[in-house]
Amino acid sequence: MTMTEQIKHAAQIVPSARQLAWQELEFYSFIHFGVNTFTDKEWGLGDEEPSIFNPTEFDAKQWVEVCKSAGMKGLILTCKHHDGFCLWPSAYTDHSVKNSPWRDGEGDLVREVADACREGGLAFGVYLSPWDRHDERYGTDEYNNYFKDQLRELLTNYGDVFCVWFDGACGEGPNGLKQIYDWDGYYKVIREHQPNAVISVCGPDVRWCGNEAGHTRDSEWSVVPEELQDCEKIQEDSQHVDDGEFSKRSNSRDENLGSREAIKSKDKLIWYPAEVNTSIRPGWFYHSAEDDKVRSLEALLDIYYKAVGGNSTFLLNLPPDKRGLIHENDARRMAELGQVIRTVFDQNLASGALAVAEESLDDNHNAMRMLDGNKDSYWRPREGTERAVIDIDLKSVRTFDTIVLQEHIRSGQRIEKLRIEVLEDDTWKPLAGCTIVGYKRILTFDKTTARQIRLVIEESRWCPTISGFEVYNNEGNPTS
């Protein structure tokens, strides 16, 4: 296959319906909660007594309200972490809430969280650790069957699940054995019972960004070599030691995943988009010593803009405390974050603007389609046109410092490089630029006053698309 043929092929790879629905959530929470919350550890050993689990003020609705205050659209719960303790009364193990004093052993924390999400309008997802440091079956074929039984419980008893989140941790079990995970068998169970759920990280639908520090790539391609699906499936590179440094690492060697150079010799390409995951605190589980170490508003906004605004999603961990509540400091920061996001993106200055392209495929794909607020309509030129210029007239002089771009990713990811210009004194002057766009790109720059904006697509694959072009003034952003 020639390079031209390879690029045309890459341009035509598109997401599945489940990947599209996941991408449109944009921002959602991780909730790490379990026996580690009560032992002040990050990774339990599996020998913890269920009697220590007793969140006397547990309130799933409070979790949901905190998430909604930040503008999150989903919640993923750690139903079982590496310690093996289950937050639901599993029929397949006694190491669960049914043997704890919480709710007198009659409680089901997964059900309460799932119900609260449904009532509050959040999508619900589950994390289930394949590594189990408690169960004696770990390291045997029988354990894989046990794990599938646990999956079936979670996927059939709690309504719709938008995501099943796997990590690749694979250490020793109580017998000193390691498990060979039956990934294909796990996936089959998920597809059977929750066909609309994405399988994330150690799965075929959503790719880990490569670190837990909130680091983002400047060029995050959703079309990448198929081999990346196997990168996190443990063994030699397994995360098997809690060395206190793992959550701070960034894998800079993996910065270039989908460029022309990266894909030129690859036999098969797939749609495998990225998720940026990090915690609001240094740890993933709650520790009172970290109450004054909640990430700043500025730091969270920076990750949000670079993740959601960089063709990724943003998965932010909020660890509830021993009461079973998200701590006041974390809740306050989430409310602040949500207020800024809502204020910044409240008034689209390009609403009602006029857009004209030097070339359009037809009237159904003219430049006005990128201003209509409809994610299903879009501008595009004729096939083979890889460069384009579109002029946007705001119809009055406006002050702005943010532009949001979206490709029509149902048609693929095409744009490789663009720049934004504004007309000043009859001269087009450069304002901002970027490489990829994908689902969403947020460009920020110093406040600019202009009426005319020009979008110049300098490089793309086969032919570009634009489904959204929005302009904002960050007057409500205290960090701008």
Structure description:
There is one protein chain. This protein has 2 domains: 3-344, Alpha-Beta Barrel (TIM Barrel), CATH 3.20.20.80; 354-472, Jelly Rolls. The chain has 10 helices and 16 strands. It has helices at 3-11, 17-23, 35-39, 60-69, 109-120, 141-156, 183-193, 260-263, 297-307, 328-344; strands at 27-31, 74-80, 123-128, 163-166, 198-201, 207-208, 223-225, 269-271, 274-279, 312-317, 354-357, 388-406, 415-424, 427-434, 441-460, 468-472. Strands 5-4-3-2-1-10-9-6 form an 8-stranded parallel β-sheet, with helices on both faces. Strands 11, 12, 13, 14, 15 and 16 form a 6-stranded antiparallel β-sheet that branches. Helix 4 (60-69) runs parallel beside helix 10 (328-344). The relative contact order is 0.13.
List its traits.
480 residues, alpha/beta, TIM Barrel, Jelly Rolls, 2 domains, eight-stranded parallel sheet, six-stranded antiparallel sheet
Query: CATH superfamily membership of the largest domain, which one?
Result: Glycosidases
Main beta sheet strand tally, sense and closure: 8 strands, parallel
* Strand coverage percent: 15-25%
Order of helices and strands: HHEHHEHEHEHEEEHEEHEHEEEEEE
Shape: globular
Just name the CATH architecture of the largest domain.
Answer: Alpha-Beta Barrel
Helix content: 10-25%
Strand order in the sheet with the most strands: 5-4-3-2-1-10-9-6
Rg measurement, Å: 24 Å
Structural class: alpha/beta
Mean of pLDDT: 93
The number of distinct β-strands equals: 16
* CATH topology term of the largest domain: TIM Barrel
The count of domains is 2
The number of helical segments is 10
Low-confidence stretches: 234-253
What is the CA–CA distance across the termini? 48 Å
What is the CATH C-level name of the largest domain?
Answer: Alpha Beta
